[in-house]
Amino acid sequence: MEDDRVETGLNMDFLRRHFLELLAAPLLVWVQWLWVRRLAAAFPGFPPRLLRLAGVAAVGLVSFAALMLLPWSSRLFGYAPPVEWLKAAGIGWGVVSGAAWMVDLAWRRWLAPRTMVPPLAGRRQLLLQAGRLAATGAPAMALGYGTFVERFRFRAVEQKIRVKGLPKDLDGLRLAQITDIHFGAFFTRRDLDYAVDLANAANPHLTLVTGDFISVHSDPLDDCLERLRRLRASAGVWGCLGNHEIVARCEDYATLRASEQGLRILRGERAAVRFGNATLHLAGVDYQPKGRPYLKAAAHLLQPLQFNVLLSHNPDVFGVAAAQGWDLTVAGHTHGGQINVEMLGMRANVARFYTPYVYGHYEKEGRQIYVSRGLGTVGLPSRIGAPPEVSLLTLCAT
Ligand SMILES: [Fe+2]
């Protein structure tokens, strides 16, 4: 990887993107001290020295993770998986201890005063304390499951794309999609090889790689692209760039090195791919930032009265893509929410804050989009309710 790639500095864009983390970090550091005081009160026999030591370790871990969120941190250590794991442990511990504190607080404020009614207090209290313990520990158990189990539950997800008037020679065409690899400490060669095998097993006509090859400047981009060389598709392997290629400032470098590995990145470009007597028009755009008009440079790539497919890393462009006339948009970016929390029949996740197209197939005015969950992770190396996937799209004439 070239050395002159640098990360974005501490600018307004960074502050806007990481507003929630920057707000949460000092709160989570404070929560560590609250836990120390709480435990000291609950277990008066526990050696105060040990408790203080545990408190200092917890504050240190969470503070380290917070500092590692700053843009220059990846340059400080270079590519160092143990440091990445330490950072993840800090973020994970911060989230788990914060969630557990909220559960505990809710118990003390609202539940405990209403349930400790004599004469059943003794037995009832025992049951309720067990429930309280389970509820307080639930965030840790869920995060552990997402980190060590679900994150590795790779699957090939098939989706039929039904298109009215699809040319006969495009009927049955198979498109494999790989996206959001985030190759590095938490998504290794072995993981990527497995995903590539899943894509190749579908014997696709086209394979599409829709951005976020890595997460940050120091991640091993060359290694990632080298592994992607194993992708096989009869009509080629095509791709577009994601937001993390911007964060890592490696757009040109990634495009060049990808082409050397047989992966053609489309950057505001289109290609005509011939199948028998029909042509599939494929175009790709770089990540489309919020706050600017979407797909401004894409409209002229569209071929009227033909079948047009757009590769866009972020799916929130779908409204504009449909209005412009793209028959199918293929996207990723959301990781399917990555960590989904089910509440009262509703799914809560971070992706919902910035797009209504979080995962799967959507249709609007006869135009369609498929949003893949992708493979890797950002922030926490954990997936809950969003297992990693290789997407297999089949075009069907109706
Ligand atoms: Fe991503």
Question: What does this protein structure show overall?
Answer:
The protein is of the alpha/beta class. It is 41% helix and 19% strand. The protein has two domains: 12-148, no CATH class; 154-397, Metallo-dependent phosphatases (Purple Acid Phosphatase, chain A, domain 2, 4-Layer Sandwich). Helix 2 runs antiparallel to helix 3, helix 3 crosses helix 5 and helix 5 runs antiparallel to helix 6 (121-148). Fe (ii) ion binds next to loops. Fe (ii) ion (FE2) is lined by residues 180, 182, 212, 242, 333, 335, 378.
Overall mean pLDDT stands at 89
Distance linking N and C termini: 46 Å
Structural shape: elongated
Order of helices and strands: HHHHHHEEHEHEHHEEEEHEEEEEE
- Provide a count of the helices: 11
Query: What fraction, in percent, of the residue positions are helical?
Result: 40-55%
Which key phrases capture this entry?
14 strands; alpha/beta; binds fe (ii) ion; six-stranded mixed beta sheet; Purple Acid Phosphatase, chain A, domain 2; 398 residues
